[in-house]
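JOB MANIFEST
job_type = single_chain_structure
chain_count = 1
residues = 268
[input]
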Amino acid sequence: MEKFLQWTAWLITPPKPYGAFHILYTLVGFTVCWKLAGKLKNTNEKQNNIVLLTVGCFLFLSEIYKQLFYYYVITNKSYAWWIFPFQMCSIPMYFCLALPFIKNEKIKSYLYNFIASFNLMGGFISFFEPSGLLNKYLVITIHSLLWHMVLVFIGFYLVRSKKAATNHKDFKQAVVVYFILCLIAFIINVTFYDVSNGSINMFFIGPAISSIIVFEDIARTFGWYVNLPIYILANCLGADIFYNVLCKINNGETIFKFPKKLKYKKSK
């Protein structure tokens, strides 16, 4: 296993953010995801489960490879706690594997709406701030690019199949799931804080200092506990905007409404 991983440690010059490759991959990838989601939008329940399981298995197997690669190649057989698989973008792996076996429709609705809002937003943002995707190791770069594009696809699929984002009022379901996941992430962070030497920071909510631009400055200046509610609120607002736009698309509504021109009566 170690020899195989070392063999796949091909070094490259990372693609430049906003270079030709990055822009082309993003545009083509988003287009393919939207089209493919449209092709699959009329799946029945059995077919839907196959789609979810396929995505979940792909993410799970690729995550195993990533964890082993970091352990044997990058960190020299010491665990990199910052890649512990419970970041926001890791959640679809668990949900897609679990959803086919969940019978309760309400619970499924909560999970669908979370994936179609917070996770879809995360997939989108990762391509507009791609520093975390472009690595000097070819296989890890491919893994990151495919992983986040799969998040975009599964979000589009749930939207276009109308399993999520059909009513803006349902966004509260996604928020409930997000808060629960934040609580779990914080417990993980506190539990493994000393073992990880303060490097673990699931969902970037602390107590370790956030590595995300702007929020890192807030955390360093005012403390992680000040950054925590600001960061959570910002995520909720961003996901709400995404969800609102998707609801309008799903319901055939105009996304941007411009005021009609005022008509003035000519004075006699």
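[summary]
Residues 207 and 224 are 6 Å apart (CA to CA).
The chain has a mean pLDDT of 93.
exit_status = 0
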